[in-house]
Amino acid sequence: MTSTTPFPPGFLWGGATAANQIEGAYDQGGKGLSIQDVMPKGIAAPPTQEPTPDNLKLEAIDFYHRYADDIALFAEMGFKVFRFSIAWSRIFPLGDEAEPNEEGLAFYDRVLDELEKHGIEPLITLSHYETPLHLARTYDGWRSRKLIGFYEKYVRTVLERYGSRVTYWLTFNEINSVLHAPLLSGGIATPPEELSKGELYQAAHYELVASAAATRIAHEINPDIKVGCMLIAIPVYPLTPDPADALAVQAAQHDNYFFGDIHTRGAYPGYALRFLREQGIELDITDEDRETFTHSVDFVSFSYYMSVCQTGDPAKQAAGEGNILGGVPNPHLPASQWGWQIDPVGLRIIANDFWDRWRKPLFVVENGLGARDELVEVDGVRTVLDDYRIDYLNDHLVQLGEAIEDGVEVLGYTTWGPIDLVSASTAQMSKRYGFIYVDRHDDGSGSLERYRKKSFDWYAQVIASNGASLTRP
């Protein structure tokens, strides 16, 4: 096409998934249990003792057996990159074994073979809310310093296996969520109400050390590897012009910034040290930890779904729906069917913010709309007429293009859930994100057949035109 586009040549268009939400086969190929196998209702309910039949993630969408066909569909859309995660408990079923599980390693070899066949770049998340269950129950997850060593061994194992085949790696998915969802994000089995702030920040510290260690290991194994951190990105606006609201915004931003600051600058920022001091929190930080922190990431990746407001007025602090990091609803924005406020301009704002702050290339690795889709028949073909998803993604991509025009360096964009998958937050199938409809439902029924939605062809055109086909105001 001759239309101009702000997206640079070689921009990595694609989609993003997580092993626990697509693979299934939780008890096949030598896989051990992960925390996800005992979270049948997502983050909204306490975990169970053993896997239960109503946990959709046990079967998920059966990517474990259907990966070749699914990757072929991604290739049909023209994907340049596919983000997926390695299930830690497929490689080390308990998490603390001496030797890895060869069947698990061989599975990801086959996935990479398929991606190479179609010319799709892999982007691998090392830990995507999938801590081995044994590590959660035996060590209380990332509350224990021992997990650093277990994670380092896992990381070295997969990087030695795949490091010559995979350029882009992410250490932890949405690492800043550990303060708010300790089991999901940190594999911490202790109930949240029993955890002190100090214990949460200590767990965050151990994860941050492990993340920096993974970066060091990757660069030792192959200097050409690019390692990124991964954050939940949520622009925060003051609810009113009251200076107290502005201070509340600053505090909320600092709570998230410090993860990125450590990943990119190699040390705790002053505001974080002040917070810890004033809270009476003394972290277990060694000189070795401080040295490890100096191994900074090559790029910053993030998920973006919504923005929030903050206020210093306790009477107005009504939390919005579905937001793991809290915040107050913005009266000027519409919301999705799950209460997530829709703010395309916020993507431009946060991209500029992160670029100005860290001067590291950015990668938008999650963005999408969860909605209730209806499968219909059009001219004898089963599909979903998801214009609402097209509108959502179009408007966000236009704003990402604006950020690139502003001078922000963006490596790529992977929409969340290019194929319908089990929701992390609610464990539902009815909260659908994909360009590909999967015939599976909240009650576990369905054939698992795949159907192209209307957005499938739309996204294919966006990729083919490198964003020139987007509808701009």
TrEMBL record:
Keywords: Glycosidase, Hydrolase. GO terms for cellular component: cytosol. The active site is at E366 (nucleophile). Gene3D superfamilies: Glycosidases. One of its GO terms (molecular function) is beta-glucosidase activity. GO terms for biological process: carbohydrate catabolic process. Belongs to the glycosyl hydrolase 1 family. This is 6-phospho-beta-glucosidase. It comes from Cellulomonas soli. The gene is bglA.
